[in-house]
Design brief:
The chain is of the alpha/beta class. It has one domain: Rossmann fold (3-Layer(aba) Sandwich), CATH 3.40.50. Helix 4 links the parallel strand 5 and strand 6. Helix 1 packs across helix 5, helix 3 packs antiparallel against helix 6 and helix 3 packs parallel to helix 7. This is Glycosyl transferase family 28 C-terminal domain-containing protein. It comes from Nocardioides panacihumi. InterPro entries: Glyco_trans_28_C.
Length: 199
């Protein structure tokens, strides 16, 4: 094939979001940095919040939700902290997110609420749960080998169903555990999802 007829292929792209909370998520940043060190052909865009971005990634600070959804929609992998926003935004972008729950013992969150949430989302087929660096490496390597694995049409649950399941889980959990998620934040997430879905 001549240079003039060669097909341009975009790089394999990971979009990672560490959340906007003041707690840092350095553990996930280190895991991702070590994986990226062996994959210089991978493009990685990171909404890092208060966490220092991994070497080898393109930091974008904190972007608007519409910008984040556009980035997720163009990604082969959506990787993020294990919060409801990550799962719901990935579903809007027709992606199965790879989620890593924040842990209180590393001062990544006030408690371990993301562990239960992520495990439930994984068991419901709404997310791929990663709890160790080895699992993250294996998951990213599998996606790199099959780039369509986590993209739309690859068994990603419908957004309406995902919203309903997340709403039920958050309602159940909020009744049991003070501080799981603020009522205002929960309202903001669902309002923005409704607005986005109406368009």
């Amino acid at each position: 094939m001549s240079a003039s007829t060669a097909v341009h292929r975009r790089p394999f792209t990971v979009v990672a979001t560490f959340g906007t909370d003041h707690h840092r998520f350095d553990r996930l940043a280190r895991w991702l940095e070590r994986w990226l060190a062996g994959h210089d052909d991978v493009r990685c865009v990171v909404q890092q919040g208060s966490t220092s971005p991994p070497a080898g990634a393109e930091p974008v600070g904190i972007v608007s939700r519409s910008e984040l959804l556009a980035l997720m929609g163009d990604a082969d992998v959506v990787l993020g902290q294990g919060g409801p926003g990550t799962v719901l935004d990935a579903a809007v972008a027709d992606r199965m997110p790879v989620v890593v729950p924040r842990l209180a013992r590393y001062d990544e969150a006030v408690d371990d609420h993301q562990v239960a949430f992520c495990r439930r989302m994984a068991s419901d087929g709404r997310a791929l749960l990663v709890e160790t660096e080895e699992q993250l490496r294996a998951t990213l390597d599998a996606a790199l080998a099959d780039p369509g694995r986590l993209r739309s049409g690859a068994g990603v649950p419908p957004i309406d169903d995902t919203i309903a399941r997340v709403r039920r889980l958050l309602d159940e959990t909020a009744r049991r555990s003070v501080g799981f998620v603020s009522a205002r934040r929960l309202g903001d997430v669902f309002a923005s999802l409704r607005d986005h879905h109406r368009r």
